[in-house]
C-alpha cells in the first residue's frame, strides 16, 4: 500500500524502547497462547484480561530502562503513524458529514507488556482498544504470530486492517454503541451475551471496510493484493478457524468475534458501500 508522505500525529506514542524492569507479566507458553486466541483483536473484550493478568504481575511496574529504536523500528513506527493519521482524517470527515464531532483516539506501540486504564496486558492479548482511556494498544510481534500461528498472508495492509478494526471500536464508543451493547448483555445467558459481542466485533470489521473505502477515494492508497491481505487476516482470526485449528472442532455458542466468513463479509460490505448506516450487525441477531 502507498503510505509514505503523511503528516505526523499528536496521538501516536512509541514505547518500544522502554522496558518495565520492575515488573514481570507472564504471557508466554500455553497461557499466553490461550489468552491470545481468546482475545485476538480484543476490542472491549480486552477488559476481561485484567483479573487474570493482575494475578500474574510482580513488581511496581515503573519503567527503568530505555534504548534507542533500530532503523527498522523507526520505519515501522512511521508506517503505523501514517495509518493512524489516515484514520483520523477519514473518521473526522465521516463524522462531519453526519453533523457529529470526532475525537481522535491515541495509539500506543509497546513491547511485551503495558499498563492501561483497562488494566495490565501483555503482547499475548493481541491488539486491543481500551475505552477507559480511548487508546489502541499494539505489540507488533502479534503480526508475526498472525502469519506463523494462524496462517495469515501478512503484509502491510493486514496491519492497516487490524488498526482500522480497533479504531472501529473507538467509533463505537463515541457513538454509544459499546455502552448500549454492555447494557443489552446484562441478564443474558453466556451464549446470548456472546452473540452481542460477535455483533460488536463484526461492526468493527465493517467500520474497517468503511475506512478503506474512504481512504482509497481520498488518497488512492491501495495496491494490488492489499484487500487480499486484509481478507486473509480476517479469515485467520475467525472464531471457527481458531477453534478448528486449536481444538479440532468448533463451538458456535462460544463465539465472541464471528466466523471467518462473517468477518470477511462485513469488511467487504463496508469497503464496497462506504456507508456507515449499513453496518447494523445487531439486526441479524433478531
Automatic annotation (TrEMBL):
Pfam family, one: Zn_peptidase
Residues annotated as transmembrane: 21-41
Claim: Transmembrane is one of the keywords in the record: yes
Key words of the record: Membrane, Transmembrane, Transmembrane helix
GO CC term, one of those recorded: membrane
Membrane topology (UniProt): Single-pass membrane protein
Keyword tRNA processing included in the entry's annotation: no
Compartments in which it is found: Membrane
Matches recorded under SUPFAM superfamilies: Metalloproteases ('zincins'), catalytic domain
Lineage: superkingdom: Bacteria
Protein name: Neutral zinc metallopeptidase
Amino acid at each position: 500500500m502507498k503510505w509514505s508522505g503523511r503528516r505526523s500525529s499528536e496521538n501516536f506514542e512509541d514505547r518500544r524502547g522502554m522496558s518495565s524492569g520492575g515488573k514481570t507479566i507472564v504471557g508466554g507458553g500455553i497461557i499466553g497462547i490461550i489468552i491470545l486466541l481468546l482475545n485476538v483483536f480484543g476490542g472491549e473484550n480486552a477488559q476481561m484480561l485484567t483479573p487474570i493478568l493482575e494475578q500474574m504481575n510482580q513488581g511496581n511496574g515503573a519503567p527503568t530502562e530505555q534504548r534507542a529504536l533500530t532503523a527498522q523500528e523507526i520505519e515501522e513506527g512511521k508506517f503505523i503513524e501514517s495509518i493512524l493519521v489516515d484514520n483520523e482524517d477519514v473518521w473526522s470527515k465521516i463524522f462531519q458529514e453526519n453533523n457529529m464531532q470526532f475525537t481522535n483516539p491515541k495509539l500506543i506501540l509497546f513491547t511485551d507488556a503495558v499498563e492501561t486504564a483497562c488494566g495490565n496486558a501483555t503482547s499475548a492479548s493481541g491488539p486491543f482498544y481500551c475505552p477507559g482511556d480511548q487508546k489502541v494498544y499494539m505489540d507488533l510481534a502479534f503480526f508475526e504470530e498472525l502469519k506463523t500461528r494462524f496462517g495469515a498472508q501478512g503484509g502491510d495492509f493486514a496491519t492497516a486492517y487490524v488498526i482500522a478494526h480497533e479504531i472501529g471500536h473507538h467509533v463505537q464508543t463515541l457513538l454509544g454503541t459499546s455502552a448500549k451493547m454492555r447494557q443489552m448483555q446484562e441478564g443474558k445467558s453466556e451464549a446470548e451475551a456472546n452473540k452481542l459481542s460477535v455483533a460488536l466485533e463484526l461492526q468493527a470489521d465493517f467500520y474497517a471496510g468503511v475506512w478503506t473505502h474512504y481512504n482509497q477515494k481520498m488518497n488512492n492508497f491501495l495496491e494490488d493484493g492489499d484487500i487480499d491481505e486484509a481478507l486473509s487476516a480476517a479469515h485467520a482470526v475467525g472464531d471457527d478457524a481458531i477453534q478448528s485449528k486449536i481444538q479440532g472442532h468448533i463451538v458456535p455458542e462460544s463465539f465472541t468475534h464471528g466466523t471467518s466468513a462473517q468477518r470477511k463479509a462485513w469488511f467487504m460490505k463496508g469497503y464496497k458501500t462506504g456507508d456507515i448506516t449499513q453496518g447494523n450487525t445487531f439486526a441479524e441477531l433478531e
